[in-house]
Structures are given as structure tokens and as C-alpha cells.
Amino acid sequence: MGNDRGTGTAVVIGASMAGLGAARVLSERFGSVTVLDRDTLPDDNTPRRGVPQGSHGHILLVSGLRELAALFDGLEDELLAAGGTRFDPGLSLRVYQYGRRSPTAATGLEMIAMSRPLLESVIRKRVAKLAGVTIRDQVAVTGLASEDGRITGVVLDTGETLTADLTVDCSGRSGSSDRWLADQGLPVPERVEVKAGVAYSTRTFRRRPGDLPEGVAFIVLPTPPEETKIALVMPVEDDRWLIGLGGWHLDNPPTDPASFEAFVRSLPDPALAEVMDRAEPLTDPVIFRYPSSRRRMFERLPAQPAGFLALGDAICSFNPIYGQGMTCAAREAVTLGATLDKHRAVSAEMARDYYRATAKVIATPWQFAAGGDFVYPQTTGPRPRGIKLSNWYARQIGLASQVAPDIGATFQSVQQLITPPGVLFKPAMIVRVLRLARRRLSDESVSR
Fold first, then answer.
1. Helix, strand, coil share of the chain (percent; to 5)
2. pTM here?
3. Which end of the chain has fewer CB atoms surrounding its CB within 10 Å, N or C?
4. 366 and 102 in contact (C-beta within 8 Å)?
């Protein structure tokens, strides 16, 4: 980039959703963008080895869909044409929690249900067609190149060095950039880790009309801390159901068809069992374990190296149960573009402002995910200030939503990262939430 818009070179490490979003933003600001991935990138929407959670359910939040649709014109229509399903989460995502199904209420928000590989495939093909962008697979980055404290590119496993004005690490939570930075004598960010012991198991089934009479998707949520299991059925492309089972501090997710069926039948709502009984299984259970949410505090470094940035899971990887990762990556990519436009140069000052801005992007999702995991006493890690009160209030909101669907719609908008969370803490809202939560609990005691 230098000081001239549209010139210079950029390298993106990782063709993940984060890397593809970054490449799209950088393509408007650099003359040449190279995306590197050690995987063999498929031509279709099959899961790939470099995305170990690719076979499992992914939710692109409304704010993430909007960000990507702004970056890729016509994206929503393309996803729908490829088999995605559009729905209002307040009307068509049915939820069971606290002993009953929540009432429906239109939110005015629209989501698209699809598999992660489909979304990644559609966007990867779009990025590959961008002027100045090259995607190279089956190549691994082994280190960074630097000069006078500035990152000047990457070293590949082939021995080749690619020079770049800006290197963006999108290699995920297991990336090696901490070691690479240390090898260059540069500071490494501290890590914050919250261990929630998440594990889940997924199967796909043939989907036919009428399999799920109510709504488009169904989720069974636990009532913590007594319950830890979560379960989801959602439509994906090629007329399939994806059924995912999991939970917090779960040592034994289902590993075979028999244990998968037993888990489904143990759920307090029969909706998933009814779908499973109607539908033909297409795959055996696939397991994924996610021991902890992890955040790298780049914004706390006293000095930032020029020429290098991290994005997506390389900064912060969230408990995937909350479905926030892809959305945060998209928002961080947009933040990257805005920061580059503000500074018009790749500098240490630009990096500092970028990390400060991304810390704001991460703040609310981290509170939901890492903070929410502390409803379970087995969760370990640094507790956010006031998290016990926050989690208690979130439970009151959930209970109140079962009496007043409009409260649920507001909470849904906050969870979708559309509405700032402050709306939930206005005095009138707090009074109403607490009053209705008491009514909900009173109704429950009477029914007993």
C-alpha cells in the first residue's frame, strides 16, 4: 500500500472465512493480494481438513450476513440459489429452554441456514475472481521476514520468501504467529483463556417437507447449571438436515449411531427425536472438541510492529456454541478496511488503531461467550467483572421472553449483534424484565 491507495502488496495467511474477508477488503486497497493456505482447497462445498469444525453446524449471525452481503454483491441470492434457507429467527427458529418452548415473535431480521463449507466455497470463488488476488493452496508459512522491526513478508515451507507491505494472519487459533513474532525479537500478546470443555457430535439426514412441523430449525438449550446439553436441528443445502448434539464440560459426546440416538431421546423436547425418526441418516456421527475460548490481547502491547496484523480466530476464538466466530471475522475485516483508509499507510500507528477498534468488535461477543460459560462452576479462567450478576440477569431475560415475546425479539437483536446491549439495561427494561420473570416463575409453580 505504501502511501498510495491501490498500490503495494499484501499477503493473507489462511483461506478461512477470516482470510477471505480480509482479501476482499485488501483487494480494494492494494495492487496485489496473495492468500496462502496449507490445505488442498476443494472446488465444491465439501468439508476440508483445515477446518476441523466444518462438518458441524454454523450460524452466520444477521450482522455478519449483512457485512458479507455488503462486501459481496448478490451474496444472499447466490446462497439461496445454492440451497440455503432464509428465515426470521424469532418466527422460525424454535427454542426450548426453562421447561417449555418459547413463543414466536417476528424480529424483522433475516438469517440464512446453510453449511459452513457452502458459505466458504461461494465466497472463495468470489475472492478468486477479484482483480489482483491470487489464492495459493498446499503451501505453508514457516515464519515471518522482517527488517528494522517491521514485518516485510513471509517465509514459505518451499524456502521462498514473499515480500509484502502488509501481512495479515488469518491462520486461526492454532496458528504460529506468536512464535514467528518472538523469532523476530518482537513482543507477543498475552493470552486469556476460558476453559469450558465444549464437545459436540453431528450427523446429517435426508430432509423432506413435514419432517419438522414447527419452524425451520429447532434448538434445545440447557437450564444451567443443572443441565449442560444442547441440541440443534437445522436445514442445509442438498435437502439435508444437520443434527448437532453437544454441551459444556461434556466428556463423552455420541460417537456412534446408537449413542447419538440415545442422546437425542434423552432431550426434554421430542422435536429432534421426531425429525430423526422421520429422516434417513446419511452420515455417521462426527466429533469435535473445543476445550476453551481464547483471546490474544494485541491491543495491550506497548508497541505494534508495522506490516503485520492478526484477524479472526488468530485474535479471538469463541466457544462455537454461540455462533459468533464468522460474524466477528467479517466485522474485523470491515474494520481493517476502515483503519487503512484512515491512515493511508501501513504503520505501527495504524496497527495500534486497528487492534483498539477490533477490541470493541470483540467486547460484546466475548461477554456473551466467555462470560456466559461461567454459569457452570466447572469453567475455569479469568472471570469478567460482574459476570455472576450478568448471567443472572440474562436468565431473567430468558424467562421474561417466555411471557413477553417482544423482549425476546429485543434480546435476539442484541445476540445477533445488531442492537447494542445497553438497550437491555435501561431502567424501564430492567423493571419490566424482572416483573415478567417473576410472573413466569409463578406460572411454573402454579402449574406444578
1. 40, 25, 40
2. 0.94
3. C
4. no
Q: For residue 50, what pLDDT is reported? A: 77
Complete DSSP assignment for 313-363: GGTEE--GGG--HHHHHHHHHHHHHHHHHHHSS--HHHHHHHHHHHHHHHH
Identify the residue whose cell numbers are 432464509: 86
What is the rounded distance in angstroms from the CA atom of residue 322 to the CA atom of residue 151? 34
Class at the top of the CATH hierarchy for domain 195-291: alpha beta
Domain boundaries, the chain: 9-91+113-192+294-369, 195-291, 387-447
Note the pLDDT of residue 445.
52
Angstrom distance (rounded) from CA 366 to CA 316 = 9
34 CB-side CA count, 13 A: 19
**Cis peptide upstream of residue 225 (ω within 30 degrees of 0):** yes
d(CA 42, CA 62) in angstroms, rounded, equals 27
For 362, other C-beta atoms within 10 Å of its C-beta total 20
Is 9-91+113-192+294-369 a domain of CATH 3.30.470.20? no
Taking CA 282 as the corner, what is the angle to CA 279 and CA 284, rounded to the nearest 5 degrees? Answer: 115
Q: Given this model, what pLDDT does residue 174 score? A: 83
Computed on alpha carbons and rounded to an integer, the radius of gyration of the chain in Å comes to 22
Beta bridge partners of 288: 200
Per-residue pLDDT, averaged over 328-332, amounts to 97
Taking only the tens place, the pLDDT of each residue in 361-403 is 999 999 888 889 999 999 999 998 899 999 999 999 999 999 9
Question: Which amino acid makes up residue 239?
Answer: D
| Cα 246 → chain centroid | 17
Query: Do 179 and 171 meet the contact criterion of CB atoms below 8 Å apart?
Result: no
Nearest to 310 by CA among 200, 112, 174, 203: 174
Q: Is the pLDDT of residue 5 over 80?
A: no
Q: Rounded to whole angstroms, how far apart are CA atoms 328 and 386?
A: 24
